[in-house]
Structure formats: structure tokens, C-alpha cells
Amino acid sequence: MGSTDGFQYRALYPYRKEREEDIDLLPGDILVVSKGALQALGFKDGDEQTPNQIGWILGVNERTKQKGDFPGTYVEYVGPVKISVPSHRPRVQRPLPATPGASGCRLQEALEQGSPLPDLQEQFSPPEIAPPLLVKLVEAIEKKGTDSEMLYRTSGSELRQALRTDWTLGDLEPFDVHSLGEALRGYLQDLPCPVVPVSVHGDILRVLQEIPQPENCRKQLLLALESPAVPLQNTLTLQFLLRHLGKVSQQAESNNLHPRALGEIFGPLLLRLPGASPELSPDFSILFLEMLLQTKELEPEQLPPALPPKPPKPKPSAASLANGNSVPLQDAEWYWGDISREEVNEKLRDTPDGTFLVRDASSKIQGEYTLTLRKGGNNKLIKIFHREGKYGFSEPLTFGSVVELITHYRHESLAQYNAKLDTRLLYPISKYQQDQVVKEDSVEAVGEQLKVYHQQYQDKSWEYDLLYEEYTRTSQELQMKRTAIEAFNETIKIFEEQCQTQEKCSKEYIERFRREGNEKEVQRILMNSEKLKSRITEIHDSKMKLEQDLKKQASENREIDKRMNSLKPDLMQLRKLRDQYLVWLTQKGARQKKINEWLGIKNETEDQYSMMDDEEELPHHEERTWYVGKINRLQAEEMLCGKRDGTFLIRESSQKGCYACSVVVDGDTKHCVIYKTATGYGFAEPYNLYASLKDLVLHYKHTSLVQHNDSLNVTLAHPVLSQPPAR
After folding, report:
1. Burial zone of 269 (CB within 10 Å; 0-12 exposed, 13-18 middle, 19+ buried)
2. Tens digits of per-residue pLDDT, 528-552?
3. Terminal-residue alpha carbon distance, the chain
4. 284-298 and 259-270 helices cross at what angle (nearest 10)?
């Protein structure tokens, strides 16, 4: 038998082919590549061990037998292998593959006849990744959401009862996620042979007993499951279920389905213990599944690496990037140098998608950098590679500098390299932000821009408030409907028990009345029975209609929640922009009356002070009129009780190194922390810029606190210890 040299690679990430010449990948797939194919592309010996630098590779997927291109960034090198030459290979005795659709037909025929579920080997064959029944159930569950606390914890649903005798799955849309979850458990329970065969129990037990370290234990368990004793269909089914259960455990904060809980529910279904066994404790199957899922919970979700360009994008012209490329990296506003990941997270907190910055890579290797991008409400870390003066996210590296790379992706979507990153680099976090955020060059222009940002903020706030009101209302209605469904279940249970009791008792009476020839009484008993059954049917119908309404409204409520969450970053960004413009105007000496006009704030006390040119007459200049030292919140509220709006005092805060301002607003006393920082006193960044408490008090004598808190539309008008003006 002739053979040639080749190499094996193992898939690390799933990949769905995008072109006809590509092949699909699932994690764990083994790919075989001819050495000659790599040499034809110009690669030397040793290059095969770094597939991420090769780019797209021509090979064969051992699982699916597909031949085509796959991305080198999605696989790891396994080792050399001998490949049989097809033209000289004798035919090997092997079972014929099932006729396409034949196994599905046999399965469908068996199910329609009410037969029990066949073995996994009869339910599907590669390139399918799992039994169609199982795939349909899992897809329906994930579509409806996996965050319910009752997921996989309910029993007695109509769907499960129906599937005990008929596994033909019709339209699953009418069923809720709890019924679907119970059906999935029922499917695994009804399999004639478990997913994990008895033949590997010994190997699994040895791994669990001898390897305490979770990550090593998990790797050894997966190796044990690759045993030839485990049919390929069983391996694929287990991999499919582990991916699903991993997604479920990621929602553990909502559904409370941690790996241990999932082990208790699914462990005994996947790995069934063969009767009483002195070696295997009841926790054996639970621990087995918990260990397979545990490290998945601890690992942060990782995006697949960037796809190699196919075909490589032409290098951007110097003319198109002249402005960007002319800036040295050190001067780029988005380059922050050597800062920690924690500092990056703080700077990108509550920012919209597309916000980004670049820092030195934590590896400290010269020429390597990390791009941090905000996407989907999370921070995505993308490594910038460097080799022989070229930069990029993956091989081949085509950009002459980091500035050129970033400038390119400020105009082009990162989906060129990773389909999940369909966004441009939109909003740089500037290290010159304090100086550059206000671009206008006059007070009037800045004021007009402030007016625009403030209006946008007001519009977004109004939209958010409407959504919040709708979300609160529908949440209350959903709770009422859930309570009503529980009441329906109890009512149905009572009526069904009554119906069973009546049937038992009425049988004797019907026989007796028929013997006596009293047909009238017989008809009366039968009529009562029919009325009772009719009533049960009506209750069932009402419950089903309510469940459908609940499902529809719950879906609408989730959409409202998504829209609210999508508004939050925009609100935060607009608030920050508005505040920066307010600080700029304040520092440039803009009058508060004019600022209020731009903000659309009507201050009823404005006219009273617009004529006071002599600020020296204000009682605010005397600290003794408003500073009361060390008193607590309750004492402050007693001092301000019954005072007019705008009456205030300053006291020491319970927060070390800070002060507190207590002020009357709409008849109630509100409290705000005053921070003391290196730049000065203030209520919040970037307003901590007053040299003393007196300067702060004098400023907010005419400036409303509403810019810090929408519920504090008040100025520090009246020191609590000042004498009221003479009448």
C-alpha cells in the first residue's frame, strides 16, 4: 500500500463554511493535510506547526470526509501522519453508508407506529452533528431563552405525556420552555442505550478518582470518551449536549443551573448506572457531568480568532491614509501605552459599541499591542501581531504601522477578520479627552452645541422612561398571569379528581338503576358526568389561551428590556458630553442665566438675583452660616425640617475624607457627597475643581444641582444659619 507524508490538525472552534470550497468544522474535528499541498504553497519544513501563520489550508475533515479549505487560525497542530495514496489503496471492508434520508425514514416510520426510540446509531449519521429530534428540541429551547429558574425542573407537561407514546415532533412553537425542557429529559430517558456506554465506566471512574485537578480531569475524561468502544454517534451527541449545557450554565445567575445542578439533572440520564454496583456511588454520574462543565464556567467566553483574509485585502494606499499614517503612534489619541486591563475596563465602562483604545500588550514584547473594543456591551480584546515591520490581527500581516491598521478599521468593518465583530472602530477613548472634547472655539458655539446634546439627552431619557413604565406594567401583568395559570392547574386537578370519583361511584348506581329499569336516573348521572367533563375542557382551553398570551407578552417584555439596555450606553455618553460642555462654559465665565437658557431650565428665583451685582453682600461668604461640622444625617434633617426650598448646610460626611451637602428640595431633605480630590472640591468628576468649600457654595448659589441629579432642581440659596432678610 502506497502512502505519503501528511499532518494532522485538531479544530478548536466551530466554523460554518462561507464559500463552496470551504469545509465545516466542529471543536474536536481531526483534519488531515498533505505535506505536498503545503509545499506547493511555498511553506518550508516546520511551518506546519504554526497553522495560524499559514492562512487557509486545503485538507480533509476525518469526521465528515469533506475536502476543502479551512482557516488555520481555528485549529491546532497535532503531529505528522502517513496518508494512504488513493490510487494504490486496496478497497477496505466497511459498511455501506445509509442511503440519504433512509435512516430518517426508518426512524419516522418507527415513531409513527408508536415504537420506542431506536439507538443513536439508527437515528442519524455524519455529517449530521446530532439526532434531528434532539437538535429540534435544543434549538427550540435556546430560541425561547435559557434564563428561567424552572428550566429542566418541571414535570407533568402535556408535551411529555404525549411523547411517551409518540415521538413525532410537530410544531414546537406553542410549547413553553419548561415543557420543551421536560421533553428533552424524556428523550434522553427513553433512549434504549445511554449516551455514555457502560464499556467506558471503568476508565471514567479511574480518572475521577486519580486526577483531582479539574482542568486535567476534564481533558482525561474527554480522552476516555474518544475510546473506540464509544460509537461515533454517541460522541457527537455528547459533544452537542455539552455545548448546549455550557450555554445554560452561563445563565446560572438567572436560572441557578450551575454545573453541579446540571450534573444532578442530566448526569444520571447520560451515564446510567447498571443496577447496584459496589464501585459506583450514585454521585458518580453527577460528578462526571459536573467535571465536564465546571471549567467551562470558569473560563471567560473567548471569541474565535480572526479569520485569515481570503483573498488578502490590498494594502490601503498612502494617499487614502495620509492623515492617519502621518501621526506617530505615541501621539495617537487612542494609544494609552502601558496601562492595566483594569484601567481599560474603567475607561470603557458604559460606553457605546464601537468605542476603543490601544495599549501595550501585557506580554511586554516589543511591537505587540492590544486593541480593546466595546461590542455587545462587553470589552473584546484583540491582539495586534508584529513581525518583520508589519502589523495585523492575523497572518498575513499587511499594515506598515499600528496607526495604519487602526485608521483602516475606522473606515472598514472588523468583520473582514472576524464575522462576530461586525463594527468599525467608531469612538476612540482619547487621552487628550479633557482638552479636546469641546471642539468649538467660542462661548456661543459651545452653548449651542450644549443645547443639542442636552436635547438629545432629554429625548433619550424620555424614551427610556416610557419603556421603563411599559416594562414595569407588563412585568406585573406577567406575574398575575403566572399566578392565574397556577390557579388553573389547581382547579383542573380538583375537577379531574372529582371526575374520577364520580366515575367510580356512578358505575355502581348506573348498573343498579338499569337493573331496576330506571333509565331517567341513568340519563341524569350520565348528563352530570358530561357536564363535568365539559367544564374541565373549558378550563383547559382557558388555561391554554392564557399560556399563549403569557408567552407572547413575555417575548414582548424581553424586547422592551433589550431596548432599555441598548439605550443605557447612549444616555451615559450624552450625559458625559453634556457635563463636559457645562464645565467648559463655567470655566470660561458664562453667566448661569445664559446656561439655563441653553438647558431650557426656568429658575423662578432667577430674577431675584439677576440684579445683585454686589456679591459681597451674600451670607454665603460667612462659613458659619452654612458649615455645621460633625453632625449626622438625622441631625441635619432636624435642622432643615420645615425650611423653604434651597435651604442648605454643609457637614462632615460619614465617608472618610469627604463632606456632605444637605439641602431642601420640594419640602424634603436630600443629601449629596462632596468629594475632596487633588483637583479640588466637587460633587462628581469632572466638577471637582473648586479650591475651597466656600468657592463651591458660591458657585452653586446661582447654579442648579440638576446637572448632577435630575431630581435636584435647586440652588444653594439659603444658608441654614443665616438671618432671614428684613421685610
Report:
1. buried
2. 888 888 888 888 888 888 888 888 8
3. 115
4. 140
